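Ex. 9. Protein: MMPL family transporter.
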Amino acid sequence: MNEGGAIRRVTGWALRRPRLTLAVWLLVTVALAVNGTRLEGHIAPTSIEVPGTASQRAQDLADREIGSRGQAPILLQGPQGAVEAQARGLAAALRGDRRNTVLTSLDPGAPPQLRPAGGGAVLLVERPTDESFGPEVGDAVRRVVRAEVHPPVRASVSGFSVIGGAISERSVSDAHSAEIIAVPILLVVLLLVFRSPLAAGIPALLGGATVASALGVADIVAQLRDVTDVATPLASMMGLALGVDYSLLMVSRFREARRRGRDVDAAAALAARTSGRTVVIAGATILATMAVAVVLAPGTFLQSAAIGAAAAALVAMAAALTAVPATLVLIGRHLDRWRIGPAARSDEAGWGRLAGLVLRRPALAALPAIAVLGALAVPGVGLDVGPPDVRVLPAGAPARTATERVVRALGQGWTAPLQAYAVDRSGRLRTPAGQTALSRLRAALIADRDAALVLGPRIVRRTAVLTVVPRSGPNDPATARLYDRTRARMRTFAAATGSRTAVGGVAAQLTDYRRAFQARLPVLVLALSAVALIALVLVLRALLLPLIAVLLNAAVVAASFGVLALLSTGKSPLLGGAGFADALSLLALVALVFGLSLDYQVFILTRLREGWDSSGRVDVAVRSAIVRTGPVVMGAAAIMSGVFLAFMTAPLQTIRQTGTGLVATVLLAASAVCLLAIPAALRIAGPAAFWLPDWLDRILPRIDLEGDQDDAAGAPAARPAHPSATPGRPPVMTSPPELALGLHLDGQVLRGALTIEGPLVGDGGVARTAVLACATDELIGAFAALPGTRAFTRTVITHHTAPARAERTLQLAAWCESDDGVRLSVRATVHDGALPVAETHATLFRVAVPASRIGAAG
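Predicted C-alpha cells for MMPL family transporter:
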C-alpha cells in the first residue's frame, strides 16, 4: 500500500495550485462553519440508556404499551395560605393539558409521604417524553409554573428532565467559554515557539477553522443519528488541539528546511511529504480508536464524544495536507517577518544530552518515567465512578438549587423514582384474583426498607404501573439494591399472573449505566489496545516495539485515572464537583487517552523506524528520534495542554474532568513515554525490537513512511544532478569507482554496506550520479542471487534524490514488495548515514531456466 504516494498526490496538487487550494478550503470551511451553527438545534438529549439492559427493556415495553413518561416534582414554599391557593391553581392549569397526570399533596387521600417537611405543597407531574434525561418534560412544566406561581410563593421544579436539560445547556455554553480562554493561551504558546506572528498565525488560524469545520461535520452526522451535547465540547477541544498540532508539525519542518538552504517551494514540498505522513498516521490512529469506541459504547454519550473527536481529527488532517502547504508556498519567504525578540535557539545540545543519557543508562532513564506512571496509577485503581446526577452542575445553577430544595423537603429518591410495569396479556389483572395479586405486590414493595413511597397501581389500557420512590439518591448503592429486589418481586408476580413485567425509570437507567461501564471498561481497553497494536505493527513492521508502546499506552490510561482520582474525588475534591468521577466523561476519556497517546507515540516511533532503516543501528535511531522529534513533541504537548487547561476551568464537572484527564495524558505521553520510556526500551531490546516473523512480513501491506529525511538528518540541501545525467537516460560516467559489497539478510529485508573506493565528487562538488546506479544495480543483483532463487531478468530505474558525500560507506536495504509468481517487485534504498541518496524500484521477471547465481552476494 503506497500511502506515501497518495499523500504526495494530495499535497502536490496543493503545492502546484496554492491559491485555488486555499480558495476551495476556505469555501468548504465557511460552508461547514455555517452548518455548525445549527448543531445546537440538532443536538439530542443526553441519554443514559444502554441497549440490552433491563432498564432499556422496560423502556421499550413502556413505549409499546403506554408510551414513555417523565416525572417532574414541583415544590411550592411560602406563606401556607398563598401556597395552597397557588398550588390548586397550578394543578388546574397542569390538568388542563390532557397529556399530564398530576398528583398533589393537597388531594384528598394523598399519601403523607407527599407532604413536604417544613410546610408547603408538592405536585408530582407526569407527561409523555421520548427521553427520560431530556429537557422536554421539565421545559413544559416550567412554562406553566412561571405563568401560575408568583411571589411570595417560590416554586422549585426538579426531576432528571430538568437536570438533563441543564447539563446539556451547560455543555454547549461552557465549551464556548473555554474556547474564548483557550485562544489567547494558544497564541502566547505559539509566539513563544515561533517568535513570529506569521509563523504562529498559521497554526492558530487552522485551529480555529478546524473547530468550526468539525462542528459542521458533527451537525451532518447529527441529522442522520442521535448526537448528544458532549460532541460540542469534544469537537472544540480536539479541533483546537489537533488543528494547531498538525499544522505546527508542518510549519516547524518547513522552517527547518529553510534554515538548511532549501528554497520555499522545496521546503514546502519536503514538509508536506514528511510531516504529512506523520499527520495522516497520527490522525488515522485517532479515527481507529474512535471507531472502536462507537462500536463498544454503552449508549449514545460515548458515541457522541467519539463523533466529535473523529470529526476534529478528520478536518485537521485535511487542512494540514492542503491548506498548510498552500499557505507555506504563498507566504513562506515572509514567514519570519516581524520577529518578536531573538530567534528561538535550537537546543540540540540539550536534547543530545538526554539522548546520551538514554543510550548510556537506559534503565536509569526509564525508571523515573515508569515510577511516575506507576505511582499515579495506584489511586486510579479505586476510582469512585458514577453516572451523572445534579451535583455535576455548578453550585449556583438553578436546576441544582431547585433539586436540593426538593431533596431537603421530600427526600433524595424523588428526583429519580423506579417504574414497575406489568402488562396483562391474559386479562387476569382485572379479575378479583389479579387485583389481589396487585395488592400483595404493592404491599411487598411498600414494606421494602429502602422504599419511601409506592404510588399506584395505575391501570393504563392493559398495563399496571407502580411508581417506587427510593429513600436514597439515584447513585446510592441502596437504590441499586432496591432496584434488584423490585425486579425479583416483579418476576415472581409475572410467574403468578402470566403478565409480562419490567422495571425501569431513571434510577434503574443510572444503575444499569454504572454496571455497564464497569463491565465494558476492560473490554474497551482491550479492544483499543488490540487496534493500537495492529496499527503500529502495520506502520512499524515490528512486533516488540509496538507491544511496548501499547503497554505504555495502558499505563498512561491508568495514570490519567489516578490524576482524576487525586483531583476530582473524595469529600472535598481539589477541582470541586460531585466527589466522584463521571462515568460518562470517563468512558469518553479512555478512548481519547488512547487516541492522543498514540498520536504522540507515532511521532517518535516513526522516527525510530526511519533511523533504524537508514542506519541499521539502534543508537543512531534513538539519538536521531530524541534530538529531532523531542522539540516538536514537547511543543505540541505545550499547545494541547494549554487548550485542555482552558477546558479545566469549565463549571460543568463532565467537561472539567475530561479536560483534567487529557492534560495529564498529554504531559505523561509526551515526556515520560515518548522521550524516555520508549527510547530506553528500544535501547534495552536492541535490534530484536524491530523483528517481524517472515510469514507476517509477507502478508502485511507496506506503508511508505520514509520520504526525504535529509533535513532531519542535518544534511545539506540537495543540489542539481551532474550535467552528464540526462533525464530518461542512464548517466554518463568515466572511471567508475570500485564497489565492495557486503550483505546480510535481516528477516525479509536484505541489508548491507557498500564501500566505494574512488572519487565520488565531480565538477563543482556534485556527486556522480552513476555511483547511485551502480550501487542499486549491485543491490538488486545481490537480492536476485540469494540462495534458493531462480534466474531473473531485470529492469532498474534509479531516481537520484540527493548527492552522496565522498569517501563514505553507503548503507543498503532491499525487500520484496509483491510477488505474483511471475513478477517480483523489489524496492531498494541507499543511505549515506541518515541521508537517502538513491531509491530504486525494480521488476524482476522469472525465467524458466535452471537456478543460477547472478551477481555477487556477500
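Check your answer against this statement. The longest strand covers residues 835-846.
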